[in-house]
Amino acid sequence: MIPQIAADRRGANMKKIALGIMALAVVASAPASAAVFNFTFDTTSTLFGGPNQTIRGTFTTTDTAVDRFGFTGLAITGISGTINGTAISGLFDAPGNPTYYYLTSGPTFLDGSGVRFNAGDATNIAFFHQDGVASDTYRVNGNGTISAFGPATSSPAAVAVVPEPATWAMMLVGFGMIGATARYRRRAAKIAYA
Predict the structure, then answer these.
(1) 62/181: higher pLDDT
(2) What's the CA gap between 55 and 53, in Å, rounded?
(3) Which of 36, 86, 116, 181 has its CA 20 to 30 A from that of 148?
């Protein structure tokens, strides 16, 4: 009977460890503090005889609101999408570059400094609200051939949370330990009753 008690204790300890790993996996799969917004800019109002400009994609922002010129804003931490069919490769990053904000209140969704990004061979493309014009008028400008103004829209995006690979690994380890515990207990029960 003593071996059975020891086996039960080992099984209980393994079960606690497995449950702990599962709890860590659940906590790790919780979404990071971020929000995602879809945006579009599509216009034939070009400057300097350039081609039509179409930008579509998403902004990733923080969830922490800040005051930006009297409006509530969220810092933009990422951008994805396309400009004229070319993939946007990310934010333009340079020393002294202004902090970008996505405005959630006020007449515009991008402040005067807007957001700058890279796409293909083009770098430092500016996308911003055109000061001194209608609240729905924005401008894209960069590399000489990209210059247009017109309406743009933005709205929160519904994004499904997908666990990271490390989270999947922890969950698999947890399930494996639960299975091993059950198998160990069955084996211990057979020995005890043999």
Answers:
(1) 62
(2) 7
(3) 36
Is 166's pLDDT higher than 70?
A: no
Classify 143 as helix, strand or coil.
coil
How many whole angstroms separate alpha carbon 188 and alpha carbon 185?
A: 5
CA 152 to chain centroid, in Å, comes to: 22
Q: Is the pTM of the predicted complex or chain greater than 0.70?
A: no
Tokens of 131: 């000061």
Residues 3-12: pLDDT tens digits? 555 555 655 6
* Total number of residues shown for the chain: 194
Question: Cα separation of 39 and 109, whole Å?
Answer: 10
Instruction: Show the tokens assigned to 120.
Output: 């293909």
Strand partners, 76: 61
Using left for φ > 0, alpha for ψ between -120 and 50, and beta otherwise, residue 69 falls in left
Single-letter amino acid code for the residue at 32: A
